[in-house]
Design brief:
single chain, alpha/beta, Rossmann fold, Helicase, Ruva Protein, domain 3, 3 domains, 6-stranded antiparallel sheet, 5-stranded parallel sheet, 21 helices, about 15% strand, elongated
Length: about 525
């Protein structure tokens, strides 16, 4: 029959150490154990790879104690099975294919229960699998076997086992205690390794998050943490190091110029000029002179020679905003710059070279413009090599609060007011609005609110009327007095409830009304107090 290992272990735990023999022999034995522990501690203290350290430690264990076939197994990264980490016999090596799942064999039982197991004779233990040291082939099954868990806190992360020739209970107990001490020491190293790996992973994720989220790291001005903005940041990193022509697409006010600036600041040309040209703000003749420059007398009013923006950007980057408004004549000249890196000033026959990187942006549908013939197809394909799409603010709601807080800090410092945050109703209004003017409109709204607020917190009534009453956007006069009063009441009640964690009585005391009136207002104004304002436990 199989040995009842737990019963044997219970018996061993009751044997007093002094029964090992005369006092001198007992002291000598304990001294040997202390010497063994000291050597094991020295081996574990070495700065070498863990696997080499553990193998060296197990070899020392066998040499100092006479134990054999020592084996350290640790959980796989997925936590599903034990794998061999180190073996005491150097000829075996640590790369062993043996595996044990929880509850499989004696070793699997130790993993599953977290309790040590002592077997007095392996030949009578049917559950013993013998997958590592081939004891059956070598005729070594008459030995005893001890297996203890390797634990981190209360979690078993591995096992440590040995064979022993000892047949008296005290020697078995000493061997088990020695293994448990060594297993505890090993667990510390395993825990430290896991902590280092965890810290490295956290650092990696934080770096990845910094690289992909709130932009401060790209240009110091782009703010966003939505998936759409993370994709923009990723594409900026991919293309910034090259000289590829880029087309930045997006609605007005989404921040296309900031993206262009970020690309320049991340490029090898960052120490050279970054020149911006708003093509929609200039007529065809002025735009041609602005881009390419002109000679004295080239046209009426040309009183002196003037360098164009392309020359000013020499060695750096030029950003052409609203390129969809280019006239056909200027499109031809720009195409030549892109293909040949050559141009002439207005009124000159001298060909100049342009060592510049060209970034373009538009808010119009260039594909439709190509089909209608208002935009050259060859120019479109030349600037559309690497498009970057900046999503409108209504499609990246998670960025609204980040942007709003950024603008609060920016304009509060600029205006000189101690405004520090947005109230909950104000946040709700900001996130509910559809933002046709995108980020530019959001910044204008925050600046407006800081100018008119008399508090350190921007409340709902401080925001423009179009945000307070999105259904009444025609004129401010269309908003009734009742609606205005309800907005103010709701804002005050919500703020008070938030400060007192949903305590209606405390909120009513601050507001100077009864708790009954507060409850009536909560119901009448549809304030979700039960869900939004949890009481402090």
């Amino acid at each position: 029959m199989a040995t009842k290992t737990l019963t044997k272990l219970d018996i061993l735990n009751k044997v007093p150490p002094c029964l090992a023999g005369p006092e001198g022999r007992c002291a000598k034995r304990h001294g040997q154990i202390m010497e063994a522990l000291a050597r094991l501690a020295r081996d574990l203290g070495q700065r070498v790879p863990l696997r080499s350290k553990f193998a060296q430690c197990l070899a020392a264990l066998e040499e100092e104690t006479g134990l054999s076939n020592s084996t350290l197994m640790l959980l796989s990264p997925n936590g599903e099975e034990l794998r061999v980490e180190a073996l005491g016999a150097s000829k075996r090596g640590a790369e062993h294919p043996a595996r044990y799942r929880p509850g499989e064999g004696i070793t699997g039982d130790v993993l599953k229960t977290g309790e040590a197991v002592v077997v007095l004779n392996l030949s009578r233990e049917r559950k013993f699998k013998d997958r590592i040291h081939q004891r059956r082939e070598l005729g070594l099954l008459e030995a005893g076997f001890i297996c203890v868990p390797v634990k981190i806190d209360d979690t078993t992360v591995g096992t440590l086992s040995v064979d022993t020739k000892a047949d008296d209970p005290v020697r078995l107990k000493e061997a088990r205690m020695l293994l448990e001490i060594l297993a505890s020491m090993v667990a510390q190293d395993v825990m430290m390794q896991r902590m280092v790996l965890l810290e490295q992973e956290i650092a990696h994720q934080e770096q990845k998050h910094r690289d992909e989220s709130v932009a401060g790291k790209i240009s110091g001005k782009i703010v966003g943490d939505s998936s759409a903005m993370r994709e923009v940041f990723q594409r900026i990193r991919q293309v910034a190091v090259s000289d590829t022509t880029i087309l930045i697409r997006g609605e007005t006010g989404t921040g296309k110029e900031l993206v262009a600036s970020a690309i320049h600041e991340q490029s090898p040309r960052k120490d050279k000029p970054f020149v911006k040209v708003n093509c929609a703000a200039l007529s065809e003749s002025l735009l041609e002179s602005e881009l390419f420059g002109h000679e004295k007398g080239a046209f009426t009013g040309a009183l002196y020679q003037r360098k164009g923006r392309l020359e000013e950007a020499e060695g750096g980057t030029i950003f052409l905003d609203e390129i969809g408004d280019f006239s056909p004549a200027i499109q031809v000249k720009l195409l030549r710059v892109l293909q040949e890196k050559e141009f002439e000033r207005v009124g000159s026959n001298q060909t100049l070279t342009a060592n510049v990187r060209i970034l373009t942006a538009t808010n119009v549908d260039l594909e439709s413009a190509v089909k209608s013939g208002s935009f050259r197809a060859d120019l479109f394909y030349r600037i559309n090599i690497f498009p970057i799409h900046v999503a409108p603010l209504r499609k990246r709601k998670s960025d609204i609060l980040l942007l709003a807080n950024y603008f609060v800090d920016k304009h509060a410092k600029k205006i000189g007011k101690p405004v520090g945050r947005l109230s909950t109703p104000a946040i709700n209004m900001l996130t509910a609005y559809h933002w046709p003017g995108n980020v530019r409109e959001l910044e204008n709204c925050i600046e407006y609110a800081i100018l008119i607020t008399g508090n350190e917190t921007i409340k709902g009534q401080d925001l423009p009327a179009t945000l307070q009453f999105p259904g009444h956007i025609e004129t401010e006069e269309a908003i009734s007095l009742k609606d205005r009063v309800e907005v103010v009441e709701r804002d005050c009640i919500v703020d008070a409830l938030k400060r007192y964690h949903g305590n209606v009585t405390a909120a009513a005391r601050e507001l100077g009304i009864t708790a009954r009136m507060v409850r009536y207002k909560i119901q009448n104004l549809n304030i979700p107090a039960a869900d939004t304002f949890k009481k402090r436990k």
